[in-house]
Each structure stands twice: as C-alpha cells, then as structure tokens.
Amino acid sequence: MPITIEATYENGVLRPAQVLPLKEHEKVRVTIEPDICWAERTAGMLKWSGKPELLRRIAEDDEFGILESP
What is the DSSP code (8-state) at residue 16? Predict the structure, then answer.
C-alpha cells in the first residue's frame, strides 16, 4: 500500500513530518519528488508566452490575488 508523506532532508537523513505506520526495521522503497510551488505544478494550464519569472511573481504575489480584486 503506497503512502505519500512530506519529509525534510537534514544532515543526510530524511525526517518525516508525521509518524509513519511502519514496523521497526521494516524495509521500504523511497521515491523522491522535490516539492514544487503550485505555480509550477499547474504550469501549462495557462497559455503564457511571457517570461516564467514574471508568471511566478504574478501567481505567488498577494498583490495579484483574488482577495485583492475589486
């Protein structure tokens, strides 16, 4: 049964953000996927022809957020 968790890499060791439902010394297989921002995860949904840095700034800046709309 696959489990997806968040972890932090510190001093050569992956530290899970929560307790894992594993037995002590249980062998597992680990796949590493670096966490990417939501702008990168949703890239391609918007037909953008500008610079990626500008799109990221717009997507992540509160100034352009939906709550700032009139």
Answer: E
pLDDT one-digit tens code per residue, 25-63: 999 999 988 877 776 777 677 777 888 888 778 878 877
DSSP code at position 25: T
The tokens for 19 are: 């307790």
- End-to-end CA separation in angstroms for the chain: 47
Alpha-carbon distance of 21 to 31, in angstroms, equals: 17
| Rounded Cα–Cα distance for residues 33 and 54 (Å) | 25
- pTM here is 0.47
Residue with token string 């022809």:
49
